[in-house]
Design goal:
With 836 residues, this protein is of the alpha+beta class. It contains 24 helices and 24 strands. An 8-stranded antiparallel beta sheet has the order 6-5-4-3-10-9-7-8.
Length: 836
């Protein structure tokens, strides 16, 4: 047995042979599929393997430990269970198995000994034999492997150093080498070139795709323009943009120079009631404007039929990319901790520390702004233009959230994938810079897209029955972002993707200007492997896992026929929007104004634009748009939960899903952020796995108390059912689905359906006991906890939940919620506290 300095010396002799073994095995295993029981990709070779290893399972995997063999290849760290199914040589290759992690997704490696832990780097030396190996991943996972006492110490130390040396990114070119390892073989290139794209989703990379979207939305007054076909007008926009029929391409070319990066106002989506959603960057005032330029810009800005335009400024109320990056870093540190330094947050400070990360605050800000825009679009007879300085971050966020709130098609899997293609991929979100795979540009790094996925999860969390896609799909998409193998995330705009896929160069001539030229014989370059899109889920997950991406939902009724291009028949909306034709308003910080520099080319003396309005105590002095937004924000809540088919007919599927934004209503994406927290905070050997985590123990005790309260309440109902008093039933409040109780305490896990249903009909009585004490013995660790998917039907107690709130019921899908008034000051929430 090797120990101490002898072990370090022996390992140092083993490491130089890693590359030699990799080169020697690559020729042998290039066409092999089964290596020591591991299903390898074409060209993938095994660097090191260790037998008699146990992997710790997460709560989603069933908890406990599973025995098997640990492998390290030059692409991934793989674990093959001992009793797992044998690999099928005839099946298509899958990049990662259920227990695998890509080397590019590993953030750090920690070795755990009897009384010490150490962060392992390529240059570090171990003076002890690890008993556990912990892999911290960039996607918030923590993978823990326990070595058996019979495992040779040499294998343990060698695989530890092999993983630490292989995963470490040494230079920016390491991502390209990682792609070559996974996809650069001849077999994989041929396999990927023969794969067909999913025809059920819209890719928005051709004019016909955009025309299909216009037809789906009923935007008959708009057309697809190919004015930016060669990316000459704007390098960050897509080849095709949607503009009004009245604007010609020759006139449109003059408008690009007036906006930052040439990102002119362009169509994104049309509400069934006739309102249009546009996006644009900031206007450049230092360029001379001709009269025709002004007319063309106004034709685009006002849309095709509306006489009112509302410009929504996104830069003041929403977080900056730097703020998002800082909040996400704090969230990672809180949820994962760091066992190598033994730094952790005390349990009594955990919730306040979560609030101080401001991650939930930023989610709340984005959802609030999207709710405001959704309410404006629902009113009809206007055009809403989202304005951002660069139009590549928060504009993608808000426009996508608005469509998820208002369009049922965007809440299906294929509709949501098409939405991301349209508003993020083709719109030029800087995925490559924001994700920062190379770790060479920290100033541009910011998980804006991950913040968007969390916002969508909040909507799914409050309206689960209105979504066809599930949280499993959102979690899979979240994890795919950290795998640098997909063309979706490895470019900043469509132009960069086209250049990489076709290897386009540029040449200049005095007549034609800059033109893209295809390099000869570029497709045979082995250093440039083909990159599949992230939507090819069969490359990442099994069919069983893909089946969990969706759930059945009722079919969406077809749209009603358009009445002169508008479905809005609400006379109140017509009365409130009583502005002069041609009016432009700015919505910023919940206030509508008409400043002199909006539009920037207009002067203060223009007579057809309204002057700025001041807020007045009465509604008569408030501008019409503010009164409209107030009317939706202050709408009276129904006194009872409405059914899907009420007295006014079926529920309108295009009513916006306006979420509740108060502190207790915002949940933490537990399945994503806390799936590795128990590994990081409570490392234990198999003999101690029956002892649950303190947080789980607390939740189980609370659950036992609630079950006893439910039993006492049901027994009281049985005794009094013979002669019930005549009492007029009070209508249930709309916030009964929050599971609130009189002590306003917060629980980490949902309540059971039985307890909540009983408490909804009868006030709960305290349990009776002979010794006036309640048993606090936690149940067995094998007892399954309630999952967030088990929704309650609501109750009159006031318990609220932080993680996976089961209280947000299915009935919420049949009712409308409206945000608080935009000018009202909400009480500051210091975050919920754990029950005492």
């Amino acid at each position: 047995m090797l120990t101490g300095s002898k072990t370090t010396f022996k390992v140092r002799q083993m490491l130089p042979d890693v590359k030699e073994r990799m080169l020697s095995q690559s020729s042998v295993n290039a066409r092999s599929r089964d290596v020591f029981g591991l299903r390898c990709l074409p060209g993938e070779c095994v660097l090191q393997r260790t037998v008699m290893v146990r992997k710790k399972l997460t709560a989603r995997e069933g908890r406990g430990w599973i025995s098997g063999t640990l492998f390290c290849t030059h692409f991934r760290v793989a674990f093959v269970p001992q009793d797992g199914p044998k690999p099928d040589d005839n099946a298509d290759p899958v990049l990662l198995g259920d227990h695998d992690v890509a080397l590019a997704s590993i953030e750090k490696v920690v070795a755990v000994g009897p009384n010490r832990t150490k962060l392992v780097t390529p240059n570090s030396s171990l003076k002890f034999t690890p008993e556990e190996l912990v892999l911290y991943c960039r996607d918030m996972r923590v993978m823990c492997f326990l070595f058996d006492r019979l495992t040779p110490d040499a294998q343990v130390i060698e695989i530890t150093y092999t993983i630490a040396k292989t995963y470490q990114p040494l230079q920016p070119g390491s991502v390209l080498s990682f792609q070559n390892v996974a996809l650069g073989s001849v077999e994989m290139k041929q396999f990927l070139s023969n794969r067909r794209r999913d025809t059920h989703m819209n890719w928005f990379d051709s004019a016909s795709d955009w025309e299909q979207e216009l037809e789906r939305c009923g935007a008959t007054s708009w057309r697809v323009s190919s004015v930016n076909d060669r990316f000459e007008m704007s390098t960050s926009l897509s080849r095709f943009i949607v503009v009004p029929h009245k604007v010609l391409d020759t006139e449109l070319k003059k408008s690009f120079s007036h906006f930052n990066e040439g990102r002119i106002p362009r169509w994104c989506w049309r509400h069934p009631r006739g309102s249009d959603l546009l996006r644009m960057s900031s206007f450049q005032n230092n360029i001379y404007h001709e009269k025709d330029d002004i007319r063309n810009l106004e034709m685009v800005l006002f849309g095709c039929q509306s006489s009112l335009c509302v410009v929504v400024e996104l830069g003041e109320e929403l977080p900056s990319p730097a703020d998002i990056q800082l909040a996400h870093s704090r969230l990672r540190a809180l949820c994962l901790g760091d066992i190598s330094t033994s730094v952790s947050v005390p349990d009594d400070k955990w919730l306040s520390t979560l609030e101080n990360t401001h991650w939930l605050d930023y989610i709340r800000s984005c959802l609030r702004k999207a709710s405001e825009v959704a309410c404006l679009l629902r009113s009809g007879h206007l055009t809403v233009a989202l304005q951002e300085v660069e139009d590549r971050d928060m504009s993608c966020m808000v426009s996508s959230l608005v469509q998820v709130m208002c369009d049922p098609h965007c809440r299906t899997q294929h509709g949501f994938q098409g939405l991301l293609q349209k508003e993020w991929v083709m719109a030029g979100h800087r995925f490559y810079s924001r994700i920062n795979y190379h770790r060479d540009n920290d100033k541009e790094e910011s998980p804006v897209f991950l913040l968007f996925l969390d916002c969508v999860w909040q909507l799914w969390f409050q309206f689960p029955s209105r979504f066809q896609l599930t949280d499993d799909f959102l979690l899979a998409l979240h994890d795919s972002v950290h795998l640098p193998l997909f063309s979706t995330f490895l470019a900043n705009c469509q132009r960069e993707r086209c250049k990489r896929s076709q290897n386009l160069g540029q040449s200049y001539t005095p007549v034609n200007g800059w033109r893209d030229v295809l390099s000869p014989d570029s497709s045979s370059d082995a250093s440039d492997p083909p990159l599949p899109p992230v939507w090819d889920w069969a490359l990442q997950y099994s069919q069983e896992r893909q089946d969990r991406f969706t759930q059945p939902v009722p079919p969406t009724p077809p749209l009603q026929p358009l009445l002169n291009g508008n479905l809005n028949t609400n006379p109140e909306a017509h009365r409130l929007i009583d502005t002069i034709p041609g009016s432009v308003f700015l919505l910023s910080r919940g206030t509508f104004t008409c400043p002199a520099n909006l539009p920037p080319w207009r002067s203060n003396t223009s007579g057809i634009y309204k002057k700025s309005h001041r807020r007045a105590p009465s509604s008569e002095g408030v501008p019409g748009l503010e009164r409209l937004l107030k009317a939706w924000a202050l709408a009276e809540f129904p006194q009872s939960i409405p059914s899907t088919f009420g007295p006014q007919g079926p529920l309108d599927p295009y009513e916006p899903l306006l979420p509740l934004l108060m502190g207790p209503c915002m949940g933490l994406w537990r399945e994503c952020y806390l799936r590795g927290a128990l590994h990081a905070q409570a490392f234990s050997h198999p003999f101690s796995t029956n002892q649950p985590h303190p947080v789980e123990r607390l939740a189980q005790e609370v659950q036992q108390l609630k079950d006893k309260l439910a039993q006492a309440s049901s027994s009281t109902n049985t005794n009094t059912s013979t002669d019930p008093p005549t009492v007029t039933p009070k209508p249930r409040r709309t916030d009964t689905n929050l599971n609130r109780s009189t002590n306003n305490s917060t629980f980490l896990y949902p309540t059971s359906r039985t307890a909540a249903t009983a408490a909804a009909h009868k006030p709960a009585l305290p349990p009776t006991s002979t010794n006036n004490q309640t048993s606090r013995t936690p149940p067995s660790a094998s007892a399954p906890l309630s999952r967030p998917g088990n929704r309650d039907t609501g109750s009159t107690n006031k318990h609220s939940f932080l993680f996976g709130n089961s209280s947000v019921t299915e009935a919420r899908a049949a009712r409308r919620y409206y945000p608080p008034p935009t000018n009202a000051k909400l009480p500051k929430s210091n975050g919920p506290s754990l029950p005492s």
